[in-house]
Design goal:
Length: about 130
């Protein structure tokens, strides 16, 4: 079996293990190599290890250890990963509005539908 191409790689940053596993399984079944992290700090460590550069980061905003806002600031300050598109995921309307003020690739309101998840990932991973 060959390694998945970076063009089809997604980094999913979500603290809820059930949501993370379900989204991972959906994306993998559709042919996307999906890396996961349970918070922003773990995602940064994975990205900075440089083993793969994903085509897209799906980012929850409300997480322990390092939340999505802190991750976005750290990502923007690191030239090696600053150009990776980020789509934020949030159930809170106030966070969705605040996210719209950032230079993001998009937002996905929670609960996320299967169609919106797959359509969003396909836009960046072709």
């Amino acid at each position: 079996m060959t390694e998945p191409s970076e063009a089809k790689t997604v980094l999913l940053v979500e603290n809820d293990p059930d949501v993370r596993e379900a989204m991972h399984d959906v994306l993998e079944r559709r042919g996307f190599h999906t890396l996961t992290a349970e918070h922003g700090g773990a995602a940064l460590a994975l990205l900075r290890a440089g083993l793969v550069k994903p085509s897209l980061i799906l980012l929850d905003l409300t997480m322990p250890v390092m939340n999505g806002w802190e991750f976005l600031d750290a990502q923007a300050a690191d030239p090696a990963i600053a150009d990776i598109p980020v789509v934020v995921m949030s159930a809170l309307p106030s966070q969705q509005g605040a996210a719209a003020a950032r230079p993001l690739a998009g937002t996905l309101p929670k609960p996320i539908t299967l169609k919106s998840l797959v359509d969003t990932v396909q836009r960046f991973c072709t």
